[in-house]
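Entry type: protein chain
Record version: 2
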Amino acid sequence: MKKTSRRRFGKQLTGAFAAVTVASLTGKAVVTETDQRPKATSDQKMFRSHDTPPPLEFDNGSFVVEKETDFNSMMINGSRREYKVTTGKTTLEHIKIVDGSGEMLYRKDEADQCIISIELRDAAGTPTSSTMVNSQTRVINPLTKHFIVDIDNSKTLDKGNQGNNDKPTSKKRDHRFRHSGGPNMSMFEITITEGTKTLYSLSPRSLPANGDDLKIMLWLE
């Protein structure tokens, strides 16, 4: 009995040593059944919340902004007209860009330092028809952040009439805004920057169907 116990103990010890050796060589922890129990980590919560329909979305085709609630205010700032989110969730945190088939073209988490710039042009791509839409988190002072969508001050974001079936595409969003440049305006160039660095650039019209089904999905925190 003693020999059998020692032999069994020796095998267990050898197996444990081998597991530790493999773990040290691969740099990966050995996963046990206990390790696999669900844990309510902040990363998991973030993943779940940002794989739900976004509260803010820019849709291509004829350019449309869909939003969970109305903008809190609008003001002219120099040559720009600023639509502001000043209460509730006001910080840009996550960006996804997907095409019509649902393929992920770009994803950025922790995007609060990013600026999304969208150049709109008419169907012919005429440079003289160009107009810009920008969105970003703006720090007003160390304690206050606003999320802002700005456009040329000669343009507006006009709220759609849901009575005429101009409704958002998701139940999570209850407001739709159309750029006053007209129904023929669509995304010509998308650029995402962080400080002085360009993170991503895309010409939607190079995509199938001219990128008409492209969506820029935004989550605020």
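Comment: The chain has two domains: 1-37, 42-220.
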